[in-house]
Amino acid sequence: MKSLKQSIAALSVTSALLFCGTPALAQNSDGFVDLIDGVSLNGWNIIGTANWVIGKGMVEGNKPNGFLVSTKNYQNFIIKAEFWAESNTNSGIFIRCQDPNKVNQYTCYEINIYDTRPEQAYATGAIVDVAKVDPVPKAGGRWNTMEITANGSHFKVVLNGAVTVADAQDSRYQDGPIALQSAGGVVKFRKLQIKPL
């Protein structure tokens, strides 16, 4: 009888996982939640024509032009990311997007990953049209860490342990989805975590 009950319980759990849709993302012991699992696009929608490759614990964008957009909205948080980019990669992490179908620097805050951006003041490590970076750090050709803090109208960006944006202030957007950009070159994300504040 005990064996039958265990079998029924196991079948119930399996059925729930099959039919509940996207599984809940687990919270790590440090309070961060993994947003990418490296094997699927659960929790994300694709917009645009970018080519996204999932596998080996990573998400790779290798063709323009589009975004992965989170299905959830976020307000105040810390994001931790690990990414690899070519020196000419045009990418970024967009936060508090106002329209999940129209992602750009005018509808979101764009934390840039773009070493060769023509206007260098808003290149890698900057928040486009909000906070300039000087000197411009170079992310191309290697793995990088980025930490983004958005708390109310205050923003901070740390790239490879160096602060690129200390305390930018802007209050246009209060909350919204997160988006990963593929707009030219290759970008790979092997970690993307969030912790609500």
Keyword list:
197 residues, eight-stranded antiparallel sheet, single chain, mainly beta, five-stranded antiparallel sheet, globular, 39% strand
Describe the structure.
The protein has about 200 residues and is mostly beta strands. The chain contains 1 helix and 13 strands. Strands 1, 3, 4, 6, 9, 10, 11 and 13 form an 8-stranded antiparallel β-sheet that branches. It has a 5-stranded antiparallel β-sheet with strand order 2-5-12-7-8, with no helix packed on it.
Short description:
This protein has 197 residues and is mainly β. Helices cover 9% and strands 39% of the residues.
Summarize the topology.
Elements lengths: L1 H18 L13 E2 L9 E5 L3 E4 L2 E4 L4 E5 L6 E9 L5 E5 L13 E5 L28 E10 L2 E6 L2 E8 L9 E4 L4 E10 L1
Antiparallel strand pairs: 1-13, 2-5, 3-4, 4-13, 5-12, 6-9, 6-13, 7-8, 7-12, 9-10, 10-11
Tell me the number of strands: 13
The secondary-structure class comes to mainly beta
The chain-level mean pLDDT equals 89
SS field, number of helical segments:
1
Instruction: Give a short account of the largest sheet.
Output: 8 strands, antiparallel
Order of helices and strands: HEEEEEEEEEEEEE
From the spread of the alpha carbons, the general shape counts as globular
- Which percent range describes the beta-strand content? 35-45%
**Terminal Cα separation, in Å?**
47 Å
- Outline the low-pLDDT stretches: 4-24
